[in-house]
Amino acid sequence: MKYWSLLLLLCPLLAPAAPVLVQEVEQAEDGLVIPYRMYRLDNGLTVLLNADKSDPLVHVEMTYHVGSAREEPGQTGFAHFFEHMMFQGSKHVGDQEHFRLVNEAGGTMNGTTNQDRTNYFETVPANHLEKMLWLEADRMGFLLEAVSQRKFEIQRDTVKNERGQRIDNQPYGLVGERMGELLYPREHPYSWQPIGYVEDLDRVNVEHLKAFFKRWYGPNNATLVISGDFETEQTLEWVDKYFGPIPAGPTVTPAEPQPAKLEQSRYQTLVDSRIRMPMLYLSYPTVYLGHKDEAALDVLSNVLGGGKSSLLYQQLVETGKAVSAGASHYCAELACTLSVWAYSNPSKDGSLAPLKQEIDRIVAELAERGIKSDDVDKAVTELRAELILGLDSTKGKSRQLALGQVLKDDPLYAINAWRQLAETTPEQVTAVYRRYLQNKPVAALSVVPTDKNDWQAAAPNFEVAERTLPASDELLASLPDRKVTDTFDRSQMPAAAEPVHIKVPPLWQDTLGDNIQLLGTVNDEIPAVSVILALPGGQRAESPADIGLATLTAAMMNQGSERLKAGAFSEALERLGASISVRSGFYTNLIEITSMTETLPQTLALVEELLFHPGLREQDFEQVKSRLLESMAQNRHRPAWLAQQAFRQLMYGNTRMGLPDEGRAEQIGAITLQQVRDYYRRYYNPANGHVLVAGDLAPEQAKTAFGFLTRWQGEAAPVPEVQVVPQPAAAGIYVVDVPGAVQSVLRIGRRALPLDATGPFFHANLMNFNLGGNFNSRINQNLREDKGFTYGAHSYFTGNRDAGVFVVATDVRGDATVPAIENILAEFSRFREQGPSQEELSYLRSSYSQQDALSYETLGNKAGFLLQLAMMQLSPDYLNKQQQIVAGIDSEALTGLAEQWLDPNDMVVVVVGDKEKLEKSLAQLHLPLHDFTIE
Fold it and tell me: How many secondary structure helices (H) and strands (E) does the chain include?
């Protein structure tokens, strides 16, 4: 490492105006490093540059050291609320223009808020870097000039809708909020969640927002990370130009750690009408981010609940005492907790008290079992693999650098934490077990269904204190405005540089044996390989009598081999830093493999063992089936699943495409282990399959490595033709009743087109782009930004090779259900009549012409691209054909497609909500109204 003097930082009057180089890191002895240069501006802005020329893109990430922990009591949710406001335009950027400009560039963007920080990020083709810096600087320096009470009100509604969708209307959605209240006193900033309390959002106004901005959104409280394909000197000039004139904000003092403290165990019960499976959630207070005990506690949580080889999984899940169980050590800036969770089986005994006793026993027996060197080694290997895979993208590298710098003043904090983990001894892990878990009090939350209080682990013994809220005007702080003095015209948006040259990853092809196709791309940016084995079969190979057999077989394949049971098989993978996952698709059974290059031979030996000699044990079968049935039953309490499944059934009827992926409970219950074994022998045959390889592996090495696939004995089984029937449902409204629902989940659409790459399906999606295919689309702008009905609304064409649908998907406030439906149908009519405007057509062309720059960055992206080529039998030049179509399409053609597919009279409307509250207003739409029950 090379370090530059920090003296200039202590003498700002002598420092030059340009960004000052503070630190440079190029390499590390163990090879784990994110190379970067750190600069600092006179106003305190920290800048981290990570040059990466591997793809023609850049990732820009601005992180402010403010999250919900910096909020005041009575002002909860404000950091997250403010994140929403940062996308509402600034002095030189119009309303919704930030999203439009990034989408138009072919990029992606978002923002997130947690307890400790708020970040905003864009990934775009590299020629748009200057524009992204201009955008970020404008909202840092000029947001308040564009803030209005109306924008404030709309985004307040949007945040409430987000809370409804993600918290209040979701099974287990309130667990995080209740655990915070149970662990911490009311004045502790972790006692509330980043989403906040609705009552607090209702009692503040735009002046509170302005005060929050002035307090926390100064450059001295921010870190800017740029990763990707850029020229350093030019980038620093732009950074200095756009951010340099912005004055520093108030001094921000570091927050002091405040780990939770429990004098005795606390018990509380949450009754949740949206759940079926009871849940026990336990949290032990520990330390804080960066504490010397953090690494040892990470190992301890891994031993307890880190995967199928863990104590909790082996002793609770594998024995049938729990449907699911795990543990993690979650660390934040002020406090960490080691949490354990488990779900009981309501079909047997849903009581959580026996589960609590079992967990207590497992924790207590750790004293006798002790911590072994192998435990530490396994955790070290797993985390190293996670770190390496996280360096696969500019976003991943930027996120690591930003979080380390913001929270610990160390851009390489995550890597250095791994190094501390690698040096951890079993004795240190034993010491933290005794210090934080053994015979220590715990916060225990029982989550039980309605009328099942007797299933709680223990009677509640702790009452959360009432909230004492200050008067609204007491929340206002008086802070001066920060005036920016520029020497250039900031209203002039920078133009994009010359378009980048987008390169499809170079491909190689080969054949194994007579009929196994190899398709790959070599990439050595990280020492890892991503592989997909696609074997003909999947759900389409099921008979009408055994729907769900493909899913059940895949679940059984994940239970290990003849030699190694699930726990031992999982442990073998963990020690290699690898993963093998089996799942069923509609057309294929998929085995997905991720491995470090250095351990690929050992990983593939396990793949061969699993494929040729799966366990398929009788003792596993009943447990797997039981867990699958409970998961299926819980799905029926999830509003989004109910809406999606109702729509599928109305579109495709009782064909395989209309039924749940996982099947029906009555048929799953009747499937035998022999049926699973028969399906495995027929449809896990590699013949006619594909091996898709992306990563650090040469073609000749790949052909040798996967040669074992040719040793499969037996001919490939015939795969049935897909049954496709006309849409069975007539247009109208279909209501799935969920009493007490606070929101309505909507699906509005019709049968449409099968999937293709350059044909009618692709053209239809081009038509949909401005209707509902991006954030600035008509439907989302109408329902979210203009009306405040929803957290988000989008539409899309989707399908497989044989059939497809068009659908609008959104969750809306219960009282906005009918107006939302009316507005969506009205948007259909307007788009059919008018088609896209010339501005919308230009937006479409610009977005589509550059978005491929982001499509091939990670190994996962590349493997997915290979899978698409294989399944659709495409040549890579289809991307050029798509670009030709986009360049040549006109408004008349898109309007014609809208006329064909967007007739409101053809639409099926699914409403998942409280029928009693909705039925009268739905009748006013004068559409056929039906009750609907999912079979």
Answer: 32, 25
d(CA 776, CA 769): 9
Contact 101, 139 (CB under 8 A): no
Whole-structure pTM value:
0.93
Question: Cβ(620)–Cβ(676) under 8 Å?
Answer: no
d(CA 744, CA 874): 40
Give whole-number Cα distances, 169 to 166, 173, 449, 733, in Å.
7, 7, 14, 21
Q: What is the pLDDT of residues 751-801, one digit of tens each?
A: 999 999 999 999 999 999 999 999 999 999 999 999 999 999 999 999 999
Q: Which residues contact 598 (CB under 8 A, 6 or more apart)?
A: 527
Is the Cβ–Cβ distance between 734 and 744 less than 8 Å?
A: no
| Token digits of residue 656 | 């395989």
Query: Which of 27, 869, 61 is closest to 393 using CA atoms?
Result: 61
Cα angle 530, 681, 612; round to 5:
50
Cα separation, 357 vs 70, whole angstroms: 38
Contact 312, 340 (CB under 8 A): yes
What are 692-748's pLDDT values in tens digits? 999 999 999 999 999 999 999 988 999 999 999 999 999 999 999 999 999 999 999
Rounded CA-CA distance 668/636 in Å is 16
Please report which helix (H) or strand (E) contains residue 845, including its range.
Answer: helix 838-850
Among residues 616, 602, 533, the alpha carbon closest in space to that of 573 is found at 602
- Read off the DSSP letter of residue 450: T
Q: CA-CA distance, 682 to 378, in Å (whole number)?
A: 36
Q: Both tokens of residue 679? A: 């399906």
Amino acid at 534: A
Predicted confidence band of residue 128 (pLDDT cuts 50, 70, 90): very high
- Per-residue DSSP letter, 614: B
d(CA 125, CA 56): 6
